[in-house]
From TrEMBL, chain A:
Post-translational modification Phosphohistidine, affected residues: H44
Reactions this protein catalyses: ATP + protein L-histidine = ADP + protein N-phospho-L-histidine
Its job: Involved in the transmission of sensory signals from the chemoreceptors to the flagellar motors. CheA is autophosphorylated; it can transfer its phosphate group to either CheB or CheY.
Boundaries of every Histidine kinase domain copy: 484-729
Gene3D superfamilies membership: CheA-289, Domain 4 (2.40.50.180), Histidine kinase CheA-like, homodimeric domain (1.10.287.560), Histidine kinase-like ATPase, C-terminal domain (3.30.565.10), HPT domain (1.20.120.160)
PROSITE patterns: CHEW, HIS_KIN, HPT
Superkingdom to which the source organism belongs: Bacteria
Low complexity composition bias: residue spans: 444-465
Residue ranges of domain HPt in the record: 1-101
Name recorded for this polypeptide: Chemotaxis protein CheA
GO CC terms of this entry: cytoplasm
E.C. no: 2.7.13.3
InterPro entries, per database record: Bact_Chemotaxis_CheA (IPR051315), CheA-like_dim (IPR004105), CheA-like_homodim_sf (IPR037006), CheW-like_dom_sf (IPR036061), CheW-lke_dom (IPR002545), HATPase_C_sf (IPR036890), HATPase_dom (IPR003594), His_kinase_dom (IPR005467)
TrEMBL record, chain B:
Organism of provenance: Marisediminitalea aggregata
Name of the protein in its database record: Uncharacterized protein
Domain of life from the UniProt record: Bacteria
Taxonomic classification: Bacteria, Pseudomonadati, Pseudomonadota, Gammaproteobacteria, Alteromonadales
Length: 863, 81
C-alpha cells in the first residue's frame, strides 16, 4: 500500500467516524444545520481525496452521499430516519472498502455493482416526493421540499437553453421522474492526439436530450487542438452517465437538475411572453386558479399562426404546468416565492429589516429568499449586461418583489441589479451566506471545507483568530507501529534493568565487591525509576477512551431492536475511561456479542414487559470505570434474567455436566455454565445470537486480553455481565517462584498471600489435600503434579504454599521456593509451545533465563 | 472521398475523419463566402465540426440523416443547441 493511500485511509477513517457520530446525533436529536454541514464536509473530504486513487466506485458512492447531504443542507430534501440509516449504510460500505484496501484484498470491479445500487438508492431520495417522509407530515414536507427545490439555482448554461430544448428537458424529467443530468464536458486541447472524438462521445450520450457546443476561443489557430465547451443534458441515470464518460475523467463534471430548477429557468425566460399572451387572459386564468382553462388557452395560443416555434414551446410547457399539480406547485413557488412562508413580500420590506428581530422561521424565509436572489444573480450574470434581454424585466420584477422598490429603483442594467443583489447577499449573515449556492460564495465554502471546525461568521472569525490559535489541539499523528516499536524497546530496557540486581549479587561474591554491589543497587534504583516513568509515558500514548469502541453500539442496538420489534434504550456511562488501544480493539467483538445476547435473549418484547409490570422500553446500561489497574466494563439489562435451574437442565441435556452435579451445583455455579463450550439457551437459533458458541468465545477473548468475566442474573430483574480487564496489557507484574529448580512466574494480581506451613497442617478431605488457614479451607494443588514434574526429594517438613485466587475462590499451590516480584513484558508462546495452554506466556529474565508464566485458570481446570 | 472542394461549395460526404479538418479549414479561409453541402454527411470527427463551428459557413444543404440540430444552433449563435 502506498504511503499516500495509507494517509488517505487514516484521515478518511476519522472523517467516517465523525460523520457516523453526527448522523447518530441527527437520528436521535433531529435536524441540526451544523451537524448536516459537518457530515457534508466529512463526505466531501473523503470524496475529494478518493479521486486521487483508482477507486471510482468508492468515489461515486461518496459523491452520491454528498449530493444527498447537500440537498438535506439546502432543505430540498427533508431529513428522516431512513435517510440517516441510508447514509450510515453508505459509510459502513466505505469503511468496509477501506478494510479491503488496507489488507490489499480489494477487488474494485466487485465494488462497482454495490456502489451503483447504493448510490442509486441514495440518489432516489434526493428531492424525493412524499414517499419517504413520515406520516402526517408527509404532505407538508413534500410541499416544502418541492418549493425549496424549485428555488435552487439552475446551472447557468441551462438558463440559456431555448424554450424548445427546455420543453424537451421538462418532458423528459416528468417522464423519468428523476432529476436530469447536466454534463459539462471540456475536452483537453490535445485530446485529438489521444484518438478522442469528444462530439461523437457527447452525441452518443445515453438518453440524450440536448447538446450545447460553445467555442472557447475567438479564433481557431490549430485545427488539431480542441477548443470547445460541450454541455450535455441527459435523463439517463448517474451510473449510465458515469460509465459513458468513464474514459474522460477529469475532462467533465456532472450535476443534477431537479424539476424545480427546470421550471424556474423556464419561467425566467418565458414570463414576459406568457403574462402578455392573449391580452393577459392566459395569465389571468392561471391567477384565478382555473388550471383547465389555462391549459386550454395555452394550447390554443401555441397553435396560433403567427407563433414562433420558441413561443409554441413556451405555451406547451405552460400547458404542461397547468395540467400537472407538481409543476403548478413549483411554478407557484417561483412566481410567489415568499407566499409559501406566509410573508408579505408585496410590501416594501427590505432584507435587512427582517433580520432585526429574527426568529427561526425568519431564518428559513431569509434562506429561501437568498436562494431566489442567488438564482436571479446567476441569470443576470448570464445576460452579459444586456438590458434589452427579454428576461431582464421579469428578473427585476422578482427582485423588486423581494427587496422593495428602494433597492432596485436605480438599477437599469443587469449589472447594476446584480451589484445590488450582491451587496445585499454579502450584508446578510454569513451563516446564511454559507448556505447559498456555491457559485456565489465559493471562497467561504472552500474555507469551511478546509477547516471543518470553522463555523463562525466572517467577522467573528477575524476576532476569534487568536483564540482559535490557543485552542488548537496539539495533536501529533503517529503510526501505531512506531509506538509499538517504542514499547518493545522499553521492554528490552526493562529486561536490561532487571539484570542489574544479578550483577549486584555477583559483585557481592567477589572480594571487595560489597561496595560495588551497593553502587550497582543505587544505580539500579535510578534506572528503575526512569524505566517506570518511560513505560508509563509510552503506555499513556496508547491509551484511548473507551468511547472509541462504545460509539459503535447505539446504532447496533437501535438496528437490532428494530429488527426484533423491541424498544431498547442504551445508556452509556464512563466513556472517557482510558484503555490501551490494542485492548480496546480486542474488546469490541466480545462486547458486541454480549449486547446482542442482551437484546435477543435478555430484553423482552414490549407486550411481555407490559405483562411483567415493566415499562415497554427496556434499558441496557453499558458502563466503563477504572478500578485500580483494571477497567471494569459492565453490561446490565433489565430483561427477563437467566433461570439457573433451566441452565442446569440444559447443560445436563447437552452433556456438559453429569447427573450428580444437578444437585450439587449452586445457583451461582449453574449460571457460569453459559460460558461452557457448546452451550446455548436459545431454543431457536437466530441470526443474532444463539449459535451456542457465543459466551464461550466471549470468555476466551476476554481471557486472551488478560481479563476475566463475571455474570450475575436474577429471573425477572435482569442480567449483568462484568468484564474486568487490565488497563494495559504491556507490562505485567509477576511473582516468581521455583519448582524443581526451575523458575516460574504467576501474575501478581492473582496472588493472595504466600505461606510456609508444616506438612502436618495439610489435611485430607475426600482424598484431596486442604489447608486450614485462618479458619478457611484452602484446597491445595501440588504444582509438581500438575506440571508432571518429578516428585520432590526434599525431606524438609516445611511446605511453601502460594495462595492464589482465580476468580472463583482461593486455592493453594504447593511450590518449592518463593522468589521476588518482577516487571516483565510478557510475550506469547510461539511455535510448538503455542499449544501449551497452561502457560500464558514467557518473559526474559535479567540473567538471560526464560521465565514461564503460569496460566492459573487453565492449570486449575486440568486438575 | 469524404470531402470534395468545388468552386463555391465544399461537399462533405459519408464519414469525415480528422484529416479532413485541415483541408476544410484551408478551403473556408480561402473562400470566406463559400458554402457547405453536407447532404450525404453521416458522421464527422470533432476536429471537422469544430472548424465549422468556428468559421460558421452557410450550409447549402444540411445532412439528410441524423440529428444535427445542435450543430445548427452552435453555428447560428455559438451558444445553444
Amino acid at each position: 500500500m502506498s504511503d499516500l493511500l495509507h494517509v488517505f485511509i487514516g484521515e478518511s477513517r476519522e472523517n467516517l467516524e465523525s460523520a457516523s457520530l453526527l448522523l447518530e446525533k441527527l437520528h436521535s436529536d433531529g435536524y441540526s444545520q451544523d451537524a448536516i454541514d459537518n457530515v457534508f464536509r466529512d463526505l466531501h473530504t473523503i470524496k475529494g481525496s478518493s479521486d486521487l486513487f483508482d477507486i471510482k466506485p468508492l468515489t461515486s458512492l461518496a459523491h452520491a452521499a454528498e449530493d444527498l447531504l447537500d440537498s438535506l443542507r439546502d432543505g430540498s430534501t427533508p431529513l428522516n430516519e431512513s435517510l440517516c440509516d441510508l447514509l450510515l449504510e453508505a459509510l459502513d460500505q466505505i469503511s468496509n472498502w477501506f478494510d479491503e484496501l488496507e489488507s490489499g484484498s480489494e477487488n474494485v470491479e466487485k465494488w462497482q455493482p454495490i456502489s451503483t445500487e447504493l448510490a442509486g438508492r441514495i440518489r432516489a431520495c434526493i428531492h424525493a416526493d412524499t414517499d419517504d417522509a413520515d406520516g402526517g407530515e408527509s404532505e407538508q414536507a413534500a410541499q416544502q421540499s418541492e418549493a425549496s427545490s424549485s428555488v435552487s439555482a439552475a446551472p447557468t448554461s441551462f438558463l440559456a437553453l431555448g424554450s424548445q430544448t427546455q420543453l424537451q428537458c421538462i418532458e423528459a424529467a416528468l417522464e423519468c421522474e428523476q432529476p436530469l443530468w447536466q454534463v459539462n464536458y471540456t475536452p483537453d486541447f490535445d485530446c485529438f492526439f489521444r484518438g478522442e472524438d469528444p462530439l461523437t462521445v457527447a452525441t452518443n450520450t445515453p438518453e440524450l436530450i440536448a447538446i450545447q457546443v460553445t467555442p472557447s476561443k475567438d479564433a481557431l489557430n490549430d485545427v488539431f487542438q480542441c477548443h470547445l465547451g460541450i454541455v450535455v443534458h441527459s435523463s439517463a441515470d448517474d451510473t449510465a452517465i458515469a460509465n459513458h464518460f468513464a474514459y474522460y475523467e477529469g475532462q467533465y463534471q456532472r450535476e443534477s437538475i431537479a424539476l424545480g430548477q427546470l421550471v424556474s429557468a423556464f419561467w425566467a425566460a418565458s414570463e414576459e411572453y406568457l403574462v402578455a399572451a392573449e391580452q393577459g387572459e392566459l395569465w389571468q386564468a392561471y391567477l384565478d386558479g382555473d388550471m383547465q382553462h389555462s391549459a386550454r388557452l395555452a394550447e390554443m395560443v401555441g397553435m396560433g399562426e403567427d407563433v414562433t416555434p420558441e413561443e409554441a414551446a413556451m405555451c406547451r410547457i405552460f400547458q404542461l404546468i397547468c395540467q400537472s399539480d407538481t409543476l403548478t406547485a413549483l411554478l407557484e413557488s417561483v412566481t410567489h416565492p415568499a407566499d409559501n412562508d406566509s410573508v408579505d413580500v408585496s410590501a416594501d420590506t427590505p432584507l435587512q429589516q427582517n433580520q432585526a428581530n429574527e426568529t427561526p422561521e425568519d431564518t428559513g424565509v431569509n434562506q429561501a429568499r437568498n436562494e431566489i436572489l442567488s438564482q436571479q444573480l446567476i441569470i443576470l450574470q448570464s445576460m452579459n449586461n444586456n438590458a434589452d434581454s427579454p428576461v431582464f424585466p421579469s428578473v427585476k420584477r422578482i427582485v423588486t418583489g423581494l427587496l422593495g422598490q428602494s433597492h432596485t429603483q436605480g438599477a437599469s442594467t443587469p449589472n447594476q441589479l446584480a451589484n445590488a443583489i450582491e451587496q445585499l447577499l454579502n450584508a446578510t449573515t454569513p451563516v446564511e451566506t454559507e448556505d447559498a449556492p456555491d457559485e456565489l460564495v465559493t471562497p467561504v465554502v472552500e474555507e469551511s471545507t478546509a477547516a471543518p471546525e470553522t463555523t463562525e461568521t466572517v467577522s467573528e472569525t477575524a476576532e476569534s483568530a487568536p483564540k482559535q490559535e490557543r485552542q488548537a489541539p496539539k495533536t501529533l499523528k503517529v503510526n501505531q507501529e512506531k509506538i509499538d516499536y517504542l514499547m518493545d524497546l522499553i521492554g528490552e530496557l526493562t529486561v536490561a534493568k532487571n539484570s542489574l540486581p544479578y550483577l549486584a549479587k555477583q559483585a557481592e561474591d567477589i572480594q571487595e565487591g560489597r561496595k560495588l554491589s551497593k553502587q550497582i543497587k543505587a544505580h539500579f534504583s535510578i534506572v528503575n525509576r526512569l524505566t517506570e516513568e518511560l513505560q508509563s509515558a509510552v503506555l499513556q500514548i496508547r491509551m484511548v477512551p473507551v468511547s472509541h469502541v462504545f460509539q459503535r453500539y447505539p446504532r447496533l442496538v437501535r438496528e437490532l431492536a428494530r429488527k426484533l420489534n423491541k424498544k431498547i434504550d442504551l445508556v452509556m456511562q464512563g466513556e472517557d475511561t482510558e484503555f490501551d488501544k490494542n485492548l480496546i480493539e480486542s474488546l469490541s467483538e466480545p462486547l458486541i456479542h454480549l449486547l446482542r445476547n442482551s437484546i435477543d435473549h435478555g430484553i423482552e418484547a414490549p407486550s411481555d414487559r407490559g405483562v411483567a409490570g415493566k415499562s415497554e422500553t427496556g434499558t441496557i446500561v453499558l458502563s466503563a470505570m477504572p478500578q485500580d489497574d483494571n477497567v471494569v466494563i459492565e453490561i446490565r439489562d433489565d430483561g427477563k434474567g437467566i433461570d439457573a435451574e433451566k441452565i442446569k437442565m440444559l447443560a445436563y441435556q447437552k452433556g456438559i455436566i453429569q447427573e450428580h452435579q444437578l444437585d450439587t451445583l449452586t445457583e451461582e455455579e449453574s449460571l457460569q455454565l453459559i460460558f461452557a463450550a457448546g452451550f446455548s439457551t436459545s431454543e431457536q437459533v437466530s441470526d443474532l445470537s444463539g449459535r451456542g458458541v457465543g459466551m464461550d468465545a466471549v470468555r476466551t477473548m476476554v481471557a486472551q486480553a488478560g481479563g476475566t468475566i463475571e455474570m450475575q442474573s436474577k429471573v425477572g430483574e435482569g442480567t449483568q455481565f462484568k468484564l474486568i480487564l487490565p488497563q494495559t496489557m504491556s507490562v505485567n507484574r509477576i511473582m516468581m517462584f521455583e519448582v524443581n529448580h526451575q523458575m516460574f512466574g504467576i501474575g501478581l494480581d492473582s496472588v493472595v498471600e504466600t505461606v510456609k506451613v508444616s506438612q502436618r497442617d495439610i489435611e485430607m478431605i475426600r482424598n484431596n489435600p486442604v489447608l486450614m488457614l485462618r479458619e478457611k479451607i484452602i484446597p491445595l494443588h501440588c504444582l509438581r503434579t500438575l506440571l508432571q514434574l518429578p516428585v520432590s526429594d526434599n525431606e524438609s517438613d516445611e511446605v511453601c504454599v502460594l495462595v492464589v485466587n482465580n476468580g472463583q475462590g482461593d486455592f493453594g499451590l504447593i511450590i518449592d521456593k518463593f522468589h521476588e516480584g518482577i516487571d516483565v513484558i510478557q510475550k506469547p508462546l510461539e511455535g510448538v509451545m503455542a499449544g501449551f495452554n497452561h502457560f500464558s506466556g514467557t518473559a526474559l529474565l535479567g540473567d538471560g533465563r526464560v521465565l514461564l508464566i503460569i496460566n492459573l485458570q487453565e492449570l486449575l481446570s486440568c486438575r | 472521398m469524404p470531402i470534395v472542394a468545388k468552386q463555391k461549395v465544399i461537399v462533405l460526404d459519408g464519414h469525415c475523419e480528422i484529416d479532413a479538418a485541415e483541408e476544410l479549414e484551408q478551403w473556408l479561409v480561402s473562400h470566406p463566402k463559400g458554402q457547405v453541402n453536407a447532404k450525404k454527411l453521416v458522421s464527422a470527427h470533432t476536429a471537422v465540426l469544430q472548424v465549422l463551428i468556428y468559421h460558421r459557413p452557410a450550409f447549402s444543404v444540411w445532412p439528410e440523416a441524423g440529428h444535427w440540430q445542435w450543430l445548427r444552433q452552435a453555428m447560428t449563435n455559438g451558444r445553444e443547441a
